[in-house]
Every structure is written in structure tokens, then in C-alpha cells.
Amino acid sequence: MNYIANIKSIALAGLAASLMAGTALAADYTLSVNTALATTDPLYKGLEAFRDNVAEASDGALEVRLFPNSQLGPDEDVLEQARAGAPVAVVVDGGRLAVFVNEFGVLGAPYLANGYDGIRKVVTSDMFNEWATTLHDEAGLDVLSFNWWQGERHLLTKKPINGPDDLSGVRMRTPGAPVWTGTIEAMGATPTPMPWGEVYSAISSNVIDGAEAQLPAVVGAKLDEVITNITLTGHINLITGLITSAAWVDSLPEDLQTILHEEALKAGDIASYGTRDALASLEQQLKDNGVMVEEIDVTPFKERTAVVYDNLGYGDLRDKLQAIAAQ
């Protein structure tokens, strides 16, 4: 009897050790994802799908935790944490990655492609994969996928905008990357970089006169409370990526690396098509809340911003990428 009890005791101790090891393993394989977007944004549904599908595909070995509204800090800070090897990821545009690999900046250049399908061809192309490899090897950042489309960006102001001349003297919030500030300046406004989370208070207190963003972000940040006009310029087709630590990804078993990349691509499609399908209702919601949403002839803005490509050395690259998008 004592012998049997001993065996049971040993078995239970082994089970407990296995459970403890499993818990430690799961803790080791936890990825914290930061985004400036609110939980109401259609793109966030894609992040939730990524979280759930990674857990299922990895049999619980890999956990994804989501942090909306920039809970982990500004995008740039999270990128630096990732470069240092931390298991964090961030949804970020190409402009912020251009400081590491210049070609990424062209993804945020004006009027590069229309809608999601065209730009998706660009960010799944062999050319893009070469940029991603360089980013991994030289900057320590891994692209899980870059097919997270947030919509086309428009002008958000307190007055009607009919053309570039109406933007003279308008202090407009934009991300700080050169491709963004260069675009807004070429459109006629004064670019004013600041974190997205500060835009509401900055507009309401007249620190800035307006901003530019995609419709889901406008609704998520409740900017309809502080602006009166949205001008549908569609000047930037906002494609973003889920970026994490290359060192952390490389430390994972190969099967988990594969799961992360495959599920990120699938979830990016979920997020992007969800965004596309929500745009009409979001526009109507803004109109119902008293915001004037106006379509205009964007030809003058296209002409004004064409110089951005040449100023940043993207002239030849633009032609190649537009050809890929048109395939």
C-alpha cells in the first residue's frame, strides 16, 4: 500500500512539475500588441481574431494580449522596446519604419494606390519581402504581416476645404515621419506632429486647427465633437503592419514562428475587409452627428503632392509599386 501511495505521489509531483513548466512556457510565449486605435475600430476586430486564432493554432502555447488606445505608450516607444528584444508588437505605418529602411516610407506617400486590394498586392510582393528582410536583419524588427488597411485619410477641420489654398495657415496634426509631414505641407497646410491621443484636446483648445485621418479613427477618437468638416481627399491610403521584435520571433520554435506570420496575414485581411465594409455606415454616422462630409475634386491635391515622391527619392519606386498594384 505504501508502495502504491509512493507511486501516486511521484506521479502527482511529476504532473505538477509539468503544469508549472507549461505555465512558464506560456508566460515565455506571450506577445503584447499595442495599437493607438479604440476597441470600436473595425481593425481591432482583426486583432481579436489574431489573438484567438493564434491561441487555437498553437494549442495555447502562445498568448496574444491586446492593448488598445496606446496603453503601452506611443508607437515609437513600443518599436524601441521591440528592437531591444521585448515581446511586444505594434500596429504601425511605413513612415515610422522608414528611419530604419527607407523604402517603407513610400507606403505612406500620397495617392499611391486606391482601396485595399491594390495596396495588398504591394505589401505581399517579392519587393516588399526584401524590405522586410532588411528590417529584420538591420533594425531588429520583424514584420508579422503588413496588410492591415485602415482606410483612406481625409482632412478634418473646422471650416470647409475646397482646395489647397484653403489650407494656408492651417496647423494640421500629422505623424512626424517625413513622408507624412511632406505630404501635408505640399497640400498647403502647416504640419504639426503629435501623438494621436492628444489630437482631441489640441483641436478643442485651438492648439491645432485640424488633423487628417481615416474615418474609423475619427469615430473612435470622437473627433466629431471638435471638428465641423471632413473633406474626402483620400490623400494617403493607410496601410499598416504588425511589427514585433526580430530577436524574440527568432527565439521561438519554428512552428510558432510560422503560426504568428500566417495568422497575422489572415487577421490582416479580416481587419481590412471589415474596415472597407464599415466605411459607408461610419460616414453616415458622422453626418448624423452634424459633421459636413464633402467630396471635392482632388486633382489639385494630387498635382501639389506629386513632388513628395521626388523630394524623398521615391520617384522610380512609385512607378514600380503602382504597376504592382495595378496587376
UniProtKB/TrEMBL annotation:
InterPro entries (alphabetical)? DctP_fam (IPR018389), TRAP_DctP_sf (IPR038404)
Which residues lie in coiled coils? none
**Record keywords: Transferase included?**
no
Name the UniProt key words of this record, in alphabetical order. Answer: Signal
* Annotated protein name in UniProt: Neu5Ac-binding protein
| Gene Ontology biological process terms, A to Z | transmembrane transport
- Annotated signal sequence range: 1-26
